[in-house]
Amino acid sequence: MKELRQTLIQSIFEVFEKMFYIFLEPSDVHFLGFDVEADIDFQGALKGSLSLQLSHNMAKHMVSHLLNMPLDQVTDEHVQDCAKEATSMICGNFITRADHQNAYDFSPPQFFTTPKGPWPYSPDEKSESVRLNFDSDSGRASVMLSLSN
Amino acid sequence: MSATALIVDDSRSIREVIRRIIRISGFGPVRCIDAVNGREGLEILSREKVDVVLTGIHMPEMGGLEMLAEMRRQATLQNLPVVVVASDAGLRRVKNATDLGCGKFIRKPFYPEEIKKALADAGQLQEAGQDERVETDIDSVDF
Questions:
Q1: pLDDT tens across A98-145, in order?
Q2: Chain B residue numbers touching A14 (CB-CB < 8 A)
Q3: End-to-end CA distance of chain A, in Å?
Q4: B136 pLDDT above the threshold of 60
Q5: Is the complex ipTM more than 0.90?
Q6: How many CB atoms lie within 10 A of CB A8?
Q7: Domain locations in chain A?
Q8: Residue B141 — pLDDT band, cuts 50, 70, 90?
Q9: CATH code for B3-136?
Q10: Residue partners of B124: CB distance under 8 A and separation at least 6
């Protein structure tokens, strides 16, 4: 799990820096009160799910940077599409790094305006999970990877 | 006369990003058409003359590789240049795309230069002169 954790961090940094021009700082603080969440499931040699939680400010900055638009023009639909795409990109990038050989199936990303609850929520008894927290000038983000056995 | 690029992705953000890259990359004039999945992409290809296709892989109803496979079964679309832009870029997935005649596989996240180079390599979009105006459809940018 330690290697996968490092791989996941690399994927998160690459997606945020290349697509959103946001430089994240890892944080040991378990933030609460995220505003939006997007989840995706993956299935192949590895099986599990990945969730991305964002503060509203972070989500709006991601849209603003990605689409080169003023913050005050960012809509809820922009935020939803951007959060789902970011989750999909992080997951795909992570899987490609973790298992370059095999093909995987991915569920369509799901979006929630009210996150399911403060993490860590009870993971499946048969799963391993890792949670990563990040802070930045643009807001906060958290990523949770759960692997099923 | 303008060239036409078909952008197939279920994310409006990604379609807009690619559209903007085309707009600022010095190709001219380029008309961009959007599709939200492979089925809609094929429908557009059946009625529009398209010069290059950029497509994602995982989309509802019909994915990009299924669309590509169907394109290669049609005589008029067999040689149409296709660029795949996807985060799912394992060896097997890239081989699937290459076997179907994908000219270039760009892994997300990407730099704008990667899209520009792939389109330049496809050879269907001409470099614009400095004073040449670049055309794009911007209506579908609205969310």
A1: 999 988 999 999 999 976 655 555 555 556 889 999 999 999 999 999
A2: 109
A3: 12
A4: no
A5: no
A6: 23
A7: 2-148
A8: very low
A9: 3.40.50.2300
A10: B3, B51, B52, B81
Distances (CA, A) of A137 to A25, A57, A74, A134, B38: 9, 10, 18, 11, 38
Would the CB atoms of A103 and B90 count as touching at under 8 Å?
yes
- Cα A133 to Cα A144: distance, rounded to the nearest angstrom: 9
What is the per-residue pLDDT for B28?
A: 77
Chain A residues close to B13, C-beta within 8 Å? 63, 66-67, 78, 81-82, 85
Q: A98-128 as b/e, with b when 16 or more CB fall inside 10 Å? A: bbeeebbebeebebbeebeeebeeebeeeee
User: A2-148 architecture in CATH?
Assistant: 3-Layer(aba) Sandwich (3.40)
Q: Check if B95 contacts A (Cβ < 8 Å).
A: no
Enter the tokens of residue A80: 């939803």
pLDDT digits (tens, 9 = 90+) for A34-79: 999 999 999 999 999 999 999 999 999 999 999 999 999 999 999 9
B71-84 pLDDT, tens digit per residue, is 999 999 999 999 99
Compare all CA atoms of chain A with the CA of B111 and give the residue at the minimum distance: A18
d(CA B110, CA B125): 20
